[in-house]
Structure formats: C-alpha cells, structure tokens
Amino acid sequence: MDPFTPRRPNGSRKKLALSTKEYNKVTGTLASARRSRQYIEDDIHEDGINGDSRSRGYDEPSFIAETSFVRAPLNSRVVSNGSVPIASFKGKGKQESLDRIPLDIQEALILEDLLYVLMGIEGVYIRHHPDYSPEDDDPLQGIRFVVSPSLDHSLCDVVERILPMATYYTAISSFIEDRSVSDYGTVNHALCAALRDMLKDYQTLLSQLEHAFNTSPQFSLQKLWFYIHPTVHTLSLLYQLISELAMTDDPSLSLSSSPSSSDLEDNERDEALGLGGAHLKAAMSQMKKNALGVSVDSSTNIKVIGGEVLAIIYERVQNMSGDPAANKLYGTLLRAAGKPYVTMLQTWITTGKLLDPYGELCVKESKSINRGTLEVDYVDEYWDKRYTLRDGSTLSGPSKRQAGVPSVRSNSGRLPGGACIPPLLERWKHKVLLAGKYLNVIRECGIETKSHLQEKEAGELSMDDERFYQFIEEAYTHANRTLLQLLIKDQELVPRLRSLRRTFFLSQSSFLTHFLDLAQTELRKHTSKTTSLVKLQSLLELALNTDMQGEDAMFREDVKVTLASTNLYTWLMKVVTVSGVIGEGEATPSEVGGLEDGRKSSNKDREKEDSDKITIIDALALDYNVKFPLSLVISRKTILRYQLLFRFLLHCKHVEQTLTNMWIEQKTAVWRQAVPHHPDFEKWRLRVHLLRSRMLAFVQQIMAFATAEVLEPNWRKLEVKLSKVSTVDQLLRDHVDFLDTCLKECMLTSSRLLRPFSKLMQTCSTFALYTGNFTKSANQALTAAEAQYGDQSMAKRWDFLMKFETNFNHWFGVHYNYVQYAASSENTSALTLVNRLKTIKPQS
User: Fold this and answer.
1) Quick one: where's region Disordered (predicted)?
2) What pLDDT was estimated at residue 459?
3) Burial (CB count <10 Å: 0-12, 13-18, 19+), residue 116
4) What CATH number corresponds to the domain at position 827?
C-alpha cells in the first residue's frame, strides 16, 4: 500500500485576506501564518480529506482516523508514488489568484510550496507542467513544475531559478530506483549508493531549511536561494550524468523534443478518438526511430553496465576538468562506482577466478570450452577462446569482427556493457587478461599459488590510483613467471620439443630406418579397413626401444602411429586453395574435418576411391600425446604442422629410397654389359641412367635444402628465443611462428609450388616402380640384338622412356621457374635451392 500524503485544503483560503488580525500575524512571522492556515484546515477537514478522497476513489480510513499521523510534519514531506495524483488532495481545482494577496503573504505561500516541490511533491501554486503525464512520461527525465502566473514577477524570477532543482531531484530519485535492481549489475548499484548518499545530504539541507521556515521570521525567499544555490549546480551535474546514462541505455530518449502546440492538438484529437495511451505512443516512437534510421541491433539490447558506466563517468571527468566542483564530484562517483569493478579485477588477476555474474568485467569466459576439448582441438580454443576480452581485441592488434563481440552503439560510438573497457584500463587490458589466464591454467593443474598480492587485495584501491596499476603489473609478472617456470622447468618443455624435432624432422632418427625395414611388407599395402594399426604401433615401439636413447627415451611412449585418409599433396592443395596458408586463422581445423569427412555424397565416394589407392607409406604419419598444461604449447594445431612436415620428409625419403633401390638394380650385368653392335640400346640405357640420376639428385637436393637450410637454422633460432622468452604468450607465438616459417620455406603453403612439386614426386615414384619393367626390357633388348631380325621393339622402349623424361623436364621447368620467382619475392631462403637445382636443369 502506498503511503498516504495529506494535502492542505484550499476551500477557505480567502479568509487570509479578510482578517486583519490574521494578516498582521502572518506578516509578523511566517510561522504564525502556518498556524493560522492550520486552523482553517480544521474547519474544512471533512470536505478537504474525506469528501475529496471519496470523489477520487481513494479511501484509507485508518490513515484519516489517525489525526497525529495526518498532521505529522515529517509525513507531509514524504513523496507519494501511488496511482492517485498528489494534487487531488490539495484542492487542485480551487486555486485562487495571488493578485489580491500582499507580497509578504505571497512569499510565505511560495516558500511553503517550494519546500514541497523540492521534495518532488506538487504544491498549490507550483504545479506539474500541463504536459506532464505520470503514465507516459519517462521518470528518468524528471518532473517539470510551473509556477502560478499570478505570482509577483520579482518572486517569480527567484522561483524559476529554484524549480530546476525539483526536476533534478525527481530524475535522480527515479534513476536510483530504476538502476538498483539486480539486472544492472554491481557497478550501477555502487553508483546508486553514492547518489543516494548525496541525496541524503540534500534532504538534510531541506529539513534544515524547513526548520528555519517554521522558526525564523527573517527567513525569506532570497535566503532560501542563498542556501541552496551551491546545491543547484551539484544536482545539475548529477542530472546531466544520469541523463547521459539513460539516453545511452535507450536511444529513443534522444529523439524526444519539447511538444509544440500542434502536438498538443494531435494528442487531444487522439484522445477524443480513443487512440491515446502509452502503448500507442510506444509503437509510434518505435516507428519514428525506424524512420530516422535508428537501427535496433544487438548493442541496443545490452544495458549500460560495468565498464560502460565507468567510461561515461570518466569522460565527464575529462570534459569537466575546468570546473573544480564538477571534477571533484565526478571523481568521487568514479571511485565509488569503480569499487566493485576493481574488486572483481583484483580477484581475477590474483586467483584466476572470474566472478562476474552480470558480465561487467572486460574479460569473459566461454564455459562450453574446457580441458576436454584439448584432445581434438585444432585451433587452440582452450587457450585462445576460453577467456577473452569482450571487445574482441588481441595482442596482435584489433582483429576483424568476431562472433560474440557486440556492435558499437550508434549514439555514442562505444561498445556496450562490459565490452566497453574504461579508458583508464585500456592500455592494461591485455595484462589483466593474461594474468588471470595464466593463474587459471595453474589452478587447472591442481596447483594452488599464494603470493603477497592476495594480502594487498584487501587494500583500498581505485581506478584513478597509480597504485592500482602497479598492482596489475605485479600480478601479471607473478602469474607469468609462475606459469613459465611450470612449463619450462617442471614440465620439461624444451626436452620435449627436442624430442619432437628428432622424431618428426628425421634428425638423428635411426629409428625410422629401422621401422621402415621392419614394416616394409605392411607399408606396401593399400589403406583399407583391414589395415592393422596395432601391428604398425608395435613395430614402431620395437624400433623406438632399440634406437632411442637419452632424453628421447623418456618420451618414446608418447609417439604413436596414425594413418591419414588423403594423399599429402592433395590435402595440402585443398587447404591452401581455401585458406591461403596452412593453419592461418581458423580455416585449417574446418578443412581437417571437412576435407577428411567429405563435403557431399559424391565427394565422399570420390575420396573413398582415392583413399583406396593410397599405400600405407603415403598415408603414414606420427602422432604425439601430451598432457595438460603442455598441451597448450604442443597443441593439436602445432602437432598438425609437425605431421605435415614429417609426411613431406617421409615422402621424400621414401622416393629417394626407391630410386636408390633402382640404382642398385641397375648395377647388374644387363645394365653394364657392353653391346657394341647395338648402339641404340646403349644410348637408351644411358638415358635411363641419366634420368634416374637427375630424379635422385632432385629429391636429395630438396631433402638437403629442407633439413640443412630450413629446419635446422630455424630450430636454432627457436632455441635462442626460448632461452630469452619472458611471457607465455610469446612462447606460444614463437613456437607457432617457427612451424609456420618451416612450412613456408619448405614451399608447402603455396599452391603454385605445390602442384608442380607433387607432379615431380609422382613422376619419380612412378618411374621407380617401373624398375623391374626396365630391367626386363633391357634383357629383351640383349636377346633381340643376338637374333636374326634384330631388336624390333626399340622404338617402343624409346617412346616409353621419353614420356617419363618429357614429363619430368616439363614439371621440373615449371617448378624451377616458380622457385626462382618465390626466391625473388616472398621466400628469400629459396635462393640456395635455386643454386642447387641448376645442376639438375636440362641443357637447352
């Protein structure tokens, strides 16, 4: 039940002018005027309260019967927010002109009305603006009051200067009531608490002024203005702040303007036609916003909370820096509103716990991403997306528009809600994110970290205090140092990276030769459902246990055998064609899933047919198992890069081995026996030797370039960086950059280089497969040379050989030209490869 606010009846106001005795009493002291009017109210109490209440449909007998409550001075100052208009108890329709009342009496009446109005209660001679409607008007804009036109002009000028205070007070009170609900978050709650404390001081001032009005005959309108003049400026500053917060939260408020006479006529016509009401006006307001191009996007649905509130207050501090009073006032509000924000931020950077139930902090958590995603995570989602900044920015700079990042507000240009980072915190936001992220990783490992910073957390820090940013720096340094020590020393990161290098980059990897010899029979088979990974894994473990020593033996159980479903170069061509660079952005994981599983049913059938043609040696790859938190550094994304380089080197090694076997085969007598009476055969045999030598030289030069001039130098650079690394993010970037550089310099990220290279390798491997055919053809040529009719099939032999030679020369020329172009434009490391390939280039 809303509180009942008694009103003074106006039925006998004329007696003030009829009684000379009462006139002398009022002019002698303002307090006696109040007593005389109280006496008049006793005579018409029944008509003024009971009768008027019944006419208004408002009946509260318990309040009316309690005379002490009705006449309580404090109760007469209580603001009523009920559905019954306050003016209905004040004789709104019985207001008389002040023209016939002496100036002193006018001042007394207006003073009393002002004490009501300054609390938001409508007076007798100071009324609500004619356009005011409690149902339709926005309470955050405040209630406007107008003074009776019959008031003396000298008094009216002073009253007009005081009346804005009532508008400010009602607006601020409505703002506090509106923003104190839980949906608006702790920053708004703290701001409302600070505003409420300031209004308590304002109400204390009004109670002091009321006491002076009741007791001092010398209290006048000028004295009232003198006492409240400083408060007018303070309330106006608060009103400007809450107006900006309200307009930011609801852009439609900025579209409203003062109503004109034509608007009033339209409203009257609408009411007469039954078209008035708040719902219709709301619909018309929405149509007006749409007509003016005010888009309703995701940002308009986000309340002004958290960092955005602090950003608005800070901007006002900066804009009002020339006004000491405004600067002090807004600075006080900034410190008060920022306390919950600072507390949440301190908890985050000292414990790694994100306690932000209303989404106010600049850091957000994706709870759907957990440690379980690390097993199949090809994009480092756990590290990159588990905790992020709400504005979508990264250390590398502002990124393209990301999913989950709201659009900026059209009326202010700021990001909404918690995505708006306070300007004071802008340059520290990445350290805030990383400090909590580092500690969160440590906490996920079950390690509790304690530092002296948690003891400092209880101290009073604010966003405009330099000590607060020193605290952030210390917390970031502590978290970074702790996690780096955990990864590098406790988890032995560097030895693991060395083991990966020796395993995947074929550096001192005698185990691979042993494994290829052991699994020679299995590797010649085609991939199918009957392929035994268990047998391949057991053979690999046998080779590892035999050949691995030292620190490599510590991690041999983490190396596993796996089979790809697509040929290396086919897969690379598809990925590069779509994303441009291996692992760039987030295109790689989608390709991993999409290209291996197929896009459509026809593609699935085609890929199934292709996969059936792949031998196990072409699909063979190694995998590496690591546990959290090392999986942050050696993630699925980085292991994918290691696998690409391993498959590239393994394929080159396999083709080299087959060409070497061909050379061994061609050391037999049939290839070395002199046949002087068959020069054409000797020439053909020499061309076969020459083509095999060129192919073998090409593969060996590619392998030598990749290992000695790409992988090894880049590994040395990585070791130097690891010895100097200072942040975990820098460690992650250095590792990924190392792998990306190796892929690029090995020419596995350019479609122009991949296609001719894959054709060359296919030509070499196919040529080696025909070793037995060439030997058989040579035997037939020797036998035919001794026959009576000679060798009749020599032309076919030449034709068969020339197909290989022409194909090899063509693709070699294309590849050589592209390597030259790449060396001169984007990949300077390829200059040495150009010099190596010159020796193989056919003489024109």
Assistant:
1) 589-608
2) 54
3) buried
4) 1.20.120.1900
